Each structure stands twice: as C-alpha cells, then as structure tokens.
Amino acid sequence: MTENRNWLHARNEATVVKLRIVASLLLLLSSTGWTVEVNVIGLFPGKAVVVIDGGAPRVISVGQKPVEGVTLISTDRESATLLIDGQRRTLGIGQHQAGPAPASQSQSATLTADPRGHFVVDGQVNGGAVRFLVDTGATAISLSSADATRLGIDYRKGQPGLMGTANGTVVVYRVKLDTVRVGDILVNNVDAAVLEGNPMPFALLGMSFLNRMEMKRDGQTMVLIRRF
Q1: Domain boundaries, given as residue ranges, for the chain
Q2: Cα(222)–Cα(204) distance, rounded to whole angstroms?
C-alpha cells in the first residue's frame, strides 16, 4: 500500500524535506561506452529520487550505485552530488545541463502560464481530449475516474492501492496509457494513476511524461522538447 502511494506522488507531506524538482543531466560515460541519462527529481536527507534512462523513479541512498558508473555521494537541501564515471557532478535545484541539441524535427510544445503561474494545456489521452495541469511533483500522470471512464480506460483492471488526500483516503489504480499527446509531442505507453471518485478540475501531467522531455522555461513560457 505504501509502495503504491509513493509511486503515485513523489512528494510525501509527512517528510521534513519536501521533494523538489531539480535539473536533468545528460552524461556520456566514455569508459563504459554507453550513454546514461540521470534526472534527479527529488531530495531527502541522505537520499535522492532519480530517473535513469527514462525508467521508473527510484529512491537511492548515499553510497548506493543504481547503475554501473553512477553513485550518489551526498545530498543537501538544494542539490545532489553524484560520482559519474569517476567525476563528481552536482545538480542544484533549478539548474539544467542539456544534452545534445535536439534535431530540427523534434516534437515540441509551447505552454503559457496562467495568472497564478500554473501551466495548463489541452492535450489528449488515447485520442480523447484532456485538460492538463503541469505538475513536476507528481510521479505519474493522474486522472480522475470520471475522466478515465470518459476516455474508455478500464482502470479497475489496473493495480489498486490507497492514497490519503485532503478529502480522506481514496482508491487509486495504476494503469498504462496507450498514447499521450501535448502539442506536437506524442508519447506511447505512459504510466498513470486513476483516482476513483475523486473529482479533479485538471488531469495532472506528471513525470511519467515529463521525464522524457527537455523543459525550458523563460518567464511565463515553457517549452517542452521530446528527448526520447
């Protein structure tokens, strides 16, 4: 039950240090002959939440080596320090080190913030219209059961779990979305969570989609560029 809750949302309100989104780092590990992409998406004392090569988010502790050539050295409230191919790399909150320049034909989407600074965008799930709120603190795309039903998603076949909300405990189901579209970007096989009976004004566009993007923000504008 706890594992399902952590999968749904990377921020745990009971922790002293809230998870905060930090930068993406594309690193070439020349000694191993392959490319690894490390995204640090949250920080705890002595731990970091990372996405490696677009996989599922995982919590790693100081000294842990999640893949060959990558080791977490330390964390603080603002950054995580990793040992990458024998070299220390520090990722601070808000920093970004881009990988290779995207090809001219890369899929992209341009978003404009609303008066409260939130990025809301029209998109599609499995071909059906959805209104998304960009939420970099959400581990996965989150849908209400009403939206899931409208979109033809048989969410009760998904993996069930429980999650505490301001309105009490709700049942959630982990599902896989066939397609998610935002602007020119189309992504297949995206993890999502469906909250049963919990009305939501927007679907949350979480990291199961965003961790495949390069995110560039300039004032009230955000550009998403698909990386893989």
Answers
A1: 2-92, 108-226
A2: 16
Helices H / strands E in the chain, number of each: 3, 17
In 73-215, where does DSSP find H-type helix?
145-150, 207-210
Q: Which two structure tokens, joined as six digits, stand for 216?
A: 């560039």
Over residues 59-86, the pLDDT tens digits come to: 889 998 877 667 888 988 878 887 765 6
CA distance 107 to 172: 31
Q: Which CATH number fits domain 2-92: 2.40.128, 3.90.1580, 1.20.120, 2.60.120?
A: 2.40.128
Within 10 Å of residue 207's Cβ, how many Cβ atoms? 27
- Pairing of β 24-29 and β 34-44: antiparallel
Consecutive 10-residue averages of pLDDT for the chain (228 residues):
45 35 31 55 84 76 80 85 72 46 66 94 94 93 95 94 78 94 93 90 95 90 90
CA angle 214, 5, 183 (to 5 degrees): 30
Beta-ladder partners of 133: 120, 204
Can you tell me the distance from the alpha carbon of 148 to that of 114, in angstroms, rounded to the nearest whole number?
Answer: 25
Neighbouring C-beta atoms of residue 23, cutoff 10 Å: 18
Q: What is the assigned CATH class of domain 108-226?
A: mainly beta
Q: Which secondary structure element, helix H or strand E, spans residue 49, and what is its range?
A: strand 47-52
Show the tokens assigned to 34.
């392959």
Residues 67-87 as b/e (b if ≥16 CB within 10 A, e otherwise) read bebbbbeebeeebbbbbbeee
